[in-house]
Amino acid sequence: MPKDKGCKSCDGPGYRSPSAAMLEGPREKLIYVACVHTDQNKSDVLCTVDVDPDSPDYCKIVHKLRMPYIGDELHHSGWNICSSCHGVPRKRDTLVLPCLVSDRAYFIDTTNERAPTIKKVLSPTEVHKYGVSTLHTSHCSPTGEILISTLGKSNGDATGDFLCIDSETLEVKATWTMGEKKAAFGYDFWYQPYHDTLVASEWSVPRIFKKGFSPDNSSNPTLYGRSLNFYSWNERKLKQVLNLGDDGIAPLEIRFLHDPKANVGLVGCAISSNVYKFYKMPNGEWAAKKIIQVPPKKVEGWMFPEMEGMITDILISLDDKYLYLSNWFHGDVRQYDISDMDNPKLTGQIFLGGSILSDSKVRVIGDEELSSQPNPVHVKGRRLDGSPQMLQLSLDGTRLYVTTSIFKPWDQQFYPEHVKNGSTMVKLDVDVQNGGLKLDEQFLVDFGTDKNDILLAHEMRYPGGDCTSDIWLAED
């Protein structure tokens, strides 16, 4: 991708610092979107989307890379190398696509950015040799390895661990965790070598959540996680399990602040619909404090008399000023100013779908926040089905991209029209000075236009890296 801002510290891989990425990095021109096929007889697709407003292909899917197998459930993605390896004479040219259902991992050659190809496939048999399954988050490591979080054992029971893959040969080396102590569940993770820490979150038992969402299951602590797991980065050992209790069910997306010396981060808890700050205490132990609670809505015509927000994604801007989150049940995207992290300030909110729309079967009879149910949203004549889910922010923080799929069984359960019509991607313009979100009514990527390829769009990645895949190391 051209460095159109003349970035002197972006020669790679990645960027020298978060501020260099934000102030000097290029505007995104392409986005890779991991998409699940709605047809069970067709394979998933990696879409390349043109987001360059000066391009004749603006808002178009310019390439589709089809996976060679069906039933994968492409979900999250990462890179062979990122800003944690800045200055290393290697290229960020391999996108890692773990599969949540099939237990495969695809390694995608992005040398041709507009038309990537498959470089290698890691088979389920190879994954299962290490006693793990249900691949989720991928991050590159400054040690020359790719780490992929795993949520289960080979039989579908829960456990948290990581596959360790050589980033040059793309061969599995081992599982990452040393010692007998293992996490009860797995999901997302982030590392912070300055504090000798890798922190991982928890979802659920794979054989349970793959069947769909049941509130009865989510209240069972043996089926849904409630803890943050803190590992020694150097020893690769699980050192502390921090239980958030019944007010922190399913802590999913987890982020340290981008400042590589920061000893604080955030995690969004899906089921309990709140955000916890986690932080290092003087004695070296980690603690957590709830800083945001999305109030439930009292409803009729839904599975329960109260509807939680269901926070399914969070991200932090590169200057560590703003937190963004999506409420997949309620249907809104929120922006909080976290300059004072103990007292976040809601500075932007916009509804883009969800389960409480004015024309839905759900009637809201008690709401602490809204005076009326939000209306459906249309962009360029297309109704936004489903609900906002995955988020990706431009490096400069002024554009927030939003897709709609969480996981096909859950999509089918809660938003069948979304599965029928396919996902959309929209763009929110961000006021980075005062806070605020505004829908760009001229931007729409429709993943349901081609009726032979109706797709559910999930995570997004820029070829040059972004604020959810890049991790920085302290310079001293």
What does this protein structure show overall?
- The chain has a single domain (30-461), classed as YVTN repeat-like/Quinoprotein amine dehydrogenase (Methylamine Dehydrogenase, Chain H), CATH 2.130.10.
- The chain has helices spanning 18-24, 124-128, 206-209, 215-218, 408-414, 416-421; strands spanning 30-37, 45-50, 61-66, 78-79, 94-98, 105-109, 117-122, 133-140, 145-152, 158-166, 172-175, 189-192, 197-200, 227-232, 237-243, 251-256, 264-269, 274-280, 286-293, 297-300, 306-307, 311-316, 322-327, 332-337, 345-351, 363-366, 378-379, 382-383, 391-393, 399-402, 424-430, 437-439, 445-446, 455-461.
- A hairpin with a 7-residue loop joins strand 16 (251-256) and strand 17.
- By secondary structure, the protein is mainly beta.
- The protein has 6 helices and 34 strands.
- The chain starts with 17 loop residues before the first helix and ends in a 15-residue tail after the last strand.
- Mean pLDDT is 96; it is low at 1-6.
- Helices cover 7% and strands 38% of the residues.
